[in-house]
Amino acid sequence: MINLRQNTPRWLIFLIDMTIVFTSVILAYLLRFNFDIPPQELDPLPLIMVYILAVRAISFLIAKSYTGIVRHTSTADALRVLFTLLAGSIWFGITNIGTYFYNHTFFIPFSIIIIDLLASTFGMITFRMVVKIAFLEFMNPVRSKVNVIIYGAGEGGITARRVLARDAGTKYKVLAFVDDDPAKAGKKLEGIDIIGPEKLENLLQTNTIAHVILSIQRFDPEKRDWLVDLCLSYNTKVLTVPPMIRWINGELSFKQIRKIHIEELLERDEISLDDEMISRETSGKVIMVTGASGSIGSEIVRQLVRFRPKKLILIDQAETPLHFLELEWMNHFSDTDVEFILGDITNEMRMNSVFEAFRPEVVYHAAAYKHVPMMEANPVEAVLTNVLGTRTIADLAVAHGTSRFIMISTDKAVNPTSVMGAAKRMAEIYIQSLDKTGNTRFITTRFGNVLGSNGSVIPLFRSQIESGGPVTITHPEITRFFMTITEACRLVLEAGAMGKGGEIFIFDMGKSVRILDLAKKMIQLSGLTLGKDIQIRYVGLRPGEKLYEELLNKEENTLPTHHERIMIAKVREYDLEEVKRLTAELIALTAKHSNMEVVRKLKEVIPEYKSQNSVYEELDINP
To answer: What are the C-alpha distances in Å from 116 to residues 360, 371, 464, 529?
Structure first.
């Protein structure tokens, strides 16, 4: 039995090619003389045939046109065949010119050369394509192929379709292209129908579609949500083609076409930044970033690079993440001057030596403890890092003449219900009050949950789904605001550049998302069925956790800025000396290692701080 998986021997391909050439010459003579070759043309035919076959054989051997794997014939293989035959035909033309000068006759009629070139090219390429199609049909009969639809009939869609066709190890049949351009609807692309998006649901209803491949790079977020919801309702998975910059050696591979991620469904329209303003505040300057190896800090660093700072001072106390950031830097940003500093922001002597050595002009303060339940169990550490650490870096910034200090805060600082939120609010109050002294401008940026950040719910859900569940949710009605890391850090740069000092900038977080709905969609995107393949389990609100999150205190209001997604919170002002005294008293209490005393002091300074689901609720009843 013939094994069709085995490559056809090269010598056999060579013999078939020579047979095609022989047949093409005969056909050329028959067509040239209307199937009645005169005797005077028949006499030299054997010599001409030997000459043509010899030239063709030599050209095939030189170009190695017979070495390609026929069942994987590509455009490049077809072009090689064409150029090899064309080179031989040009040689025949040169031969004709030589014989004409010798005896005023053409050795091979030019019409024969042209017809032979066309016939040989058609025959050799057709032979390869027939073998390829036959092999693909043998490996993947039409009845066993999986139907897919490609959304986007542009270059990305064509590339995706060709990748599917090239990958013989798959069993995909492109049923249709979908495109938003009405001018393309009703036409065909590479023999496949192009339909409008309004006909997509009918196609999903009447056919079993395994995948819809989204090939459009910049797709409207609302339309993407509609597409995913529609496909999931018919148990169809949505795949996406990565941006061209991620293609390997400029070529897309099938393995790079991946499932769409939940983060992409929560993205909004790309933010436009005032690059000129940001560049004015960062270009050519020495910039310090604390918490530089964290999810927010590291993204701020990546975005700062394109504004060409003079030097970056990257501080973190986490050794391994800082090491990985250094490795990333060596691979991608080695042309930027950078110092990696391993250190604790609460260590004043260590931080002072850094400020003295590098004199940063701008500080992005992203270092903080952020996990609500962890800080609820460790209030002393929350105050030491979030309050003492912030005070240390802020005071040093003033002492060493730093021009701008941008602090990364959180929506949990609004009407705090947790130790973490209260500690961050205390830090906000301190630096906002400090803005009134010295030449350092202090700016606070406040936003909600960041997709993919350390501690985000999405990595947790993804891990639970991969391990078979259950997916744990604290409460069926809990909601959160979400923003991508890239979006959040872009707004931080913009707010940091526009700030005049003393502002608390809040970001437009969009609509709050119900965590239960988020979990259900993640389960669907994983191809699993809720209640059958995986379960959802409610575990109750964690200590200090809110059911709903806020971005503004009830007594606050906002002022607009030139950027539609950035607003300024109007908050009450504090007396600097009183803030300094209260902050010092709070920090001094940490030496006693009494969690209750530390939390009591936080509640005294921040009267709106009311604990929820926490042992510290008794302090709200009996201060």
So the answer is: 76, 77, 66, 61
Cα–Cα distance, 193 to 187 (Å, whole number): 6
User: What Å distances lie between residue 329 and 37, 144, 245, 312, 316, CA to CA?
Assistant: 75, 48, 19, 11, 15
Domain boundary among 235, 260, 285: 260
Mean pLDDT of 546-566: 69
- Cα 316 to Cα 621: distance, rounded to the nearest angstrom: 39
Count Cβ atoms within 10 A of the Cβ of residue 564 and give its class: 0-12 exposed, 13-18 middle, 19 or more buried: exposed
DSSP state of 562: S
132 plus 204 within the same structural domain? no
**274 or 69, higher pLDDT:** 274
Domain boundary (139, 164, 180) is at 139
State whether 359 and 340 are in the same domain: yes
Query: Strands 513-514, 479-480: parallel, antiparallel or unpaired by DSSP?
Result: antiparallel
8 A C-beta contact, residue 608 and residue 553? yes
pLDDT confidence band for 455 (50 / 70 / 90): low
- What integer pLDDT is reported at residue 367 of this predicted model? 95
Q: How confident is the model at residue 1 (pLDDT cuts 50, 70, 90)?
A: very low
Task: Say if residue 221's pLDDT is above 50.
Answer: yes
DSSP 450-513: EETSTT-HHHHHHHHHHTT-PEEES-TT-EE-EEEHHHHHHHHHHHHHH--SS-EEEE---S-E
Q: Rounded to an integer, what distance in angstroms lies between the CA atom of residue 274 and that of residue 228?
A: 33
- Reference 506, options 491, 487, 489; nearest CA is 491
Residue 153's Cβ-side half-sphere holds a number of Cα atoms within 13 Å equal to: 24
Higher pLDDT, 468 or 455: 468
How far apart are alpha carbons 58 and 67 in whole angstroms?
A: 14
Yes or no: say if 382 and 369 are a contact pair by the CB < 8 Å rule: yes
Tokens of 42: 């028949």
Taking a C-beta distance cutoff of 8 angstroms, is the pair 421, 455 a contact? no
Residue 429: give its domain's CATH number.
3.40.50.720
Mean pLDDT for the stretch of residues 408-432: 93
Burial class (CB in 10 A: 0-12, 13-18, 19+), 202: exposed
Range of the structural domain that residue 332 is part of: 275-446+494-506+554-617
Nearest to 518 by CA among 469, 551, 472, 454: 472
Contact between 377 and 364 under an 8 Å Cβ cutoff? The reply is: no
Show the tokens assigned to 345. Answer: 């922001």
Count the Cβ atoms, other than its own, within 10 Å of residue 399.
13
Q: Does one domain contain both 316 and 206? A: no
Mean per-residue pLDDT over the chain, rounded: 84
Residue 602, Cβ neighbours under 10 Å: how many? 27
In a 3-state reduction of DSSP, which class is residue 561?
coil
